[in-house]
Amino acid sequence: LSRIGRRKVGLPPGPPTAPLLGNLHIFPTEFAHYKFTEWAQVYGDVYSLKIGPGTAIVISSAEAVRELMDKRSATTVDRPPNFMADAVTGGLNMVLARYTEEWRILRRTASAVLTPNASARHLHIQRAEAAQLMYDLLQAPQGFYTHIRRYANSVMMSILYGKRCPRYETREATAFFHVQHLWEAALEPGAHPPVDLLPFLRYIPERWAPWKKLCKEVRKLQRELYFGLLGECEDRVWKGEDSGCFMDEVVLRQEEFAMSREMTGYLGGVLIEGGSDTTSSFLQTVVLALTAFPETLRKAQEEIDRVVGPNRLPTPEDIDHLPYIQAIIKETHRFRPVAPLAVPHCTLAFEEYRGFLIPEGTTIFVNTWGIYHDPKAFDEPEVFNPDRYIASEYGTKPAFDASDFKHTLPFGSGRRICPGIHVANNSLIVNTMNLIWGFNFSPPH
Ligand code: HEM
Question: N or C: which end of the chain has fewer CB within 10 A?
Answer without folding.
Answer: C
